[in-house]
Amino acid sequence: MQDQRRIFIALPLDAEAADSLSRWIEEFAKNTHLPLRLVNREGLHLTLIPPWYAEAEEIGRIQRVLDEAAAEVKPFFVTLEQASYGPDARYPRLVWATGPHSAPAEELRSVLQAKLSESGTGTKEVEKRELLTHITLARFNPESAVGLVKEPIQNGKIEVGSLVAGISLMESVLSPSGARYETIHFAKFGQSV
After folding, report:
1. Cα dihedral 61, 63, 68, 73 sign
2. What gap in Å lies between CA 146 and CA 3, rounded to an integer?
């Protein structure tokens, strides 16, 4: 078996939005008994295409696909309005910030999936569900949180907007303490290749 990496494609947040969300989750963590594993500021992102395993030699081709797709896109805004438990309120395992549907993000995801497929790279599963605008802020083990999760989160109303200026190819490095995210490549919107 070749050297495989667990990668995904994401929209990084601008610095102001990342700072705001980091402050919010840090404050929430101080006031809860939940055993939270916070996503660090640099790891906050909106996932466009979920993780898949790619061979090391595919990474360059995937980067080129991102560069080509990003050249055709103008920066756009995403908005986050509510912090809540997710992804299923009945069996939560994370705290996330959600917002209204983003048509530009949805369109970009469709274009990327098609271009990755054409290039013979990328995940083989095409996501057909509507893209949910969300940022994971923290994770927790559901078994260790029994009786501690209360819906809805008090003071869960947040108003954070972020200018999305490009797309990132990210690597998810799994460990017993949780996933760590590293940016492999960033493709800035509107920049010709």
Report:
1. positive
2. 39
Specify whether the CB–CB gap between 112 and 66 falls below 8 A. yes
Which domains does the chain possess?
4-188 (3.90.1140.10)
Cis peptide before 152 (omega within 30 of 0): yes
Tens digits of pLDDT across the chain (193 residues): 458 999 999 999 999 999 999 999 999 999 888 889 999 999 999 999 999 999 988 999 999 999 999 999 999 999 999 999 999 877 889 999 999 999 999 999 999 999 999 988 877 677 788 999 999 999 998 887 777 776 668 778 999 999 999 999 999 988 877 778 999 999 999 988 6
Q: What is the DSSP letter of 143?
A: G
Q: What is the pTM of this model?
A: 0.90
